[in-house]
Write a structure and sequence with these properties.
Length: 433
């Protein structure tokens, strides 16, 4: 039986466009769904243009959120005033330095975290915290949507949107810079037309900068040209090594359970210690990284990093961890460290596997207590002293004298014969003997 009714050819068929047909992700907002937006606001050109653009294009209210992760030189009263001047309902400024240091940087130190043998993840560590705070403030202020200023070519869009989708599936996301197709000149023109102050006038900034307590990155200008050696003006944080002091400096870092707690014998809170270590490293030209990086969106890019605190503290932690670990721990843990770093780099801070790895990392670090001395000189960092109550090291065993007890040199020949047995048998089976 056919239940379809005959269609009157004179009846006009109206097809209603399905907004979800063009939605490439369930969390992306359509214009009709946006009422009040929580904007991650830095006070720079992109987010200032966004603040005005969202009000005009979406006819939406905007609440701004600015997060302090230790960016140097920021005047947050000025940032807040600018947001209010541009029509924000409110601008919340959150000092998240302590949380960033204890809940994100400290785990990264325990995991000896860097990506691609050079990038200590400072931006990657900050983004999940910023996005988590965005979720909290969006809910608190009645926002239905979160807006960010990431482009479609970077990793930050993944880190922020993955966090929002994981922690708050009810919230929508808009990313104006990714969709509005405005170049830098168009943004400046839009800002001038709408009376938006542009930092430094209308000149295009030479570099795109991101920084926090753990480091600083520079992109843009000549950096994309692999044949171009770094220009001096890119180094606004670290002293160029050739201009660093002619005398080296010894720095001692004290750790408890894998977390740095003292510098040169002075016990410090973690934020203060990170800032102090960065200051010492900057003076001696430590922590400059010229890095080729494989982004998770498929691009291979070049970045210039300045990471003086990380250059000192990660090296010290790795050395202390090796001192207290067995050969088997020291061969196994770096494999997990690399996976931990990749998950964080890839925007998967909330992935259960990272938490599983973190549990092992923290267990290993319960014994990573002691002091490491490092010599800083014209861009180099070298370990010179080591001390730990948990060291798997005995000075007497390390000498050539027969120490007996735990180790007897006379037992070595029997060990060597057994240790080399399969290798000898394999060569004989192949006819090599």
């Amino acid at each position: 039986m056919n239940d379809e009714q005959p269609r009157d050819p004179h009846t006009e068929v109206h097809r209603v466009a399905d907004p979800d047909a063009t939605r490439v992700a369930s969390y992306l907002a359509q214009p009709g769904e946006v009422g009040r937006v929580l904007l991650l606001y830095s006070g720079g050109l992109d987010t200032s243009v966004m603040l005005k653009w969202i009000q005009d294009e979406y006819e939406a209210e905007v609440v701004a959120l600015t997060v302090n992760l230790g960016q140097p030189g920021e005047d947050y009263d000025v940032v807040r005033g600018k947001a209010m001047q541009l029509g924000a309902l409110d601008c919340h400024v959150v000092d998240a330095r302590e949380e960033f240091a204890s809940e994100y940087v400290a785990p990264a130190i325990r995991a000896n975290a860097d990506y691609g043998d050079g990038y200590p993840l400072f931006t990657a560590l900050g983004r999940p915290l910023i996005a988590k705070l965005a979720v909290e403030y969006a809910r608190r202020t009645g926002c239905d949507t979160i807006a960010h200023g990431c482009t479609g070519k970077g990793n930050d869009q993944v880190r922020i949107e993955a966090t929002i989708a994981t922690l708050a599936p009810e919230l929508k996301v808009i990313a104006p810079v990714r969709s509005w197709q405005m170049g830098r000149d168009e943004e400046i023109a839009y800002a001038r037309k709408h009376g938006i102050p542009v930092k430094g006038g209308t000149e295009t900034a030479p570099y795109s900068i991101d920084d926090n307590l753990w480091g600083r990155s520079s992109e843009g200008k000549w950096i994309e040209d692999l044949a171009h050696a770094p220009d001096d003006d890119v180094f606004q944080l670290v002293t160029r090594p050739e201009l660093a002091p002619d005398e080296p400096e010894i720095v001692t870092v004290g750790f408890e359970a894998g977390v740095p707690v003292s510098l040169n014998g002075e016990r410090l809170k973690l934020v203060d210690l990170l800032e102090r270590a960065a200051s010492i490293g900057m003076k001696h030209g430590v922590g400059i990284v010229d890095h080729i990086e494989d982004r998770i969106v498929g691009l291979k890019v070049r970045d210039i990093y300045e990471v003086p605190a990380a250059a000192i503290l990660l090296k010290a932690h790795r050395e202390l961890e090796r001192l207290v670990g067995t050969i088997h721990q020291n061969q196994f843990k770096p494999e997990l460290d690399r996976k931990w770093a990749y998950l964080v780099y890839a925007g998967l801070w909330w992935e259960p596997l990272r938490e599983d790895i973190q549990a092992y990392v923290e267990h290993v670090n319960t014994r990573v207590t002691g002091t490491i001395g490092l010599k800083l000189y014209k861009g180099s960092v070298r370990v010179v002293t080591r001390e730990s109550p948990n060291a798997v090291y005995d000075a007497q065993l390390a000498t050539f004298a027969d120490s007996g007890g735990l180790f007897s040199q006379s037992a070595s020949p029997g060990f060597i014969e057994i240790w080399s047995l399969q290798s000898r048998m394999a060569r004989r089976a192949r006819g090599d003997q």
